[in-house]
Specification:
Blueprint lengths: L4 E5 L3 H13 L3 E5 L2 H11 L3 E5 L7 H9 L9 E5 L4 H9 L4 E4 L4 H22 L10 H16 L8 H8 L3 H12 L3 H19 L4 H7 L5 H12 L7
Parallel strand pairs: 1-2, 1-3, 3-4, 4-5
């Protein structure tokens, strides 16, 4: 089985080595950097599937690194987990606003960190397989499969953004809104708004099952402004409430 590549960014050499050992034992291919600036330089070499970064670092901190990553055309899709000693809610909000997928305060639980990492990587592939399925179990042409992959990738980049809409997705894919609507309806049998909402809900379910955060936090992470609306949408889609998952 092909190893997942991850990039670890941490200025404390002892912590960095501990993290490296932790993930190598779990059969990850690990690259390391001592600050955000070095992390940016290593992206083209390491080509990671996921990044785990400290926040407080010299040269370039985790927030600035994340902001530059999300502005990069080639790397903005990469999931990022932020590790920090800052437990204040406003710092978490800043992390999610800049595009973090998870925000974990130290001291972290090693087993939980591994599970979250695996969950992100496996969950993306699981939802992609779901998204490519059609009611009549038709086999998609390779071009259609690639299109859906690109759609999922763009939604994933903007997962925590509740204002991400069809127009934003169409612009990111360089197609008109009407073309996107027709093409996705033909391929997946869903409207764009439904596809985006169900993508968010599938990711939420995966995170709830792994108990990576509270239900309210997960709702925020996947782009729902209202906990009540999240619970309603979740029950309509899965036939059960988030708490009974």
């Amino acid at each position: 089985m092909k190893k997942h590549k991850i990039l670890l960014i941490e200025d404390n050499p002892v912590v960095l080595e501990t993290l490296k050992d932790l993930f190598e034992i779990e059969d990850f291919d690990v690259a390391t950097a001592e600050n955000g600036l070095e992390g940016l330089k290593k992206l083209s070499v390491s080509n990671p599937s996921l990044i785990i970064s400290d926040v407080m670092m010299p040269e370039m901190d985790g927030f600035d690194f994340l902001q530059q990553l999300r502005e990069s055309h080639n790397y903005k899709h990469i999931p990022v987990i932020l590790l920090t000693a800052k437990a204040m809610n406003e710092n978490k909000i800043e992390g999610y606003t800049k595009g973090a997928d998870y925000y974990i305060t130290k001291p972290y639980d090693a087993k939980e960190l591994i599970l979250i990492t695996k969950n992100i990587l496996q969950g993306k592939e699981r939802y992609l397989n779901y998204a490519l399925s059609k009611p009549k179990e038709e086999t998609l042409e390779s071009a259609d499969s690639q299109f859906v992959r690109e759609v999922c990738e763009e939604i994933d980049k903007n997962l925590s953004n509740p204002d991400f809409r069809m127009e934003d997705l169409a612009e990111a894919l360089y197609v008109s809104s009407s073309t996107l609507q027709k093409k996705l309806k033909r391929i997946a049998g869903k409207s764009v708004s439904r596809f985006i909402r169900e993508y968010r809900l599938e990711v939420a379910k995966s995170r709830i099952e792994q108990k990576t955060a509270t239900i309210s936090e997960i709702a925020y992470e996947v782009g729902f402004k209202s906990h009540a609306y999240f619970s309603k949408s979740y029950k309509e889609y899965f036939g059960q409430t988030p708490r009974t998952t």
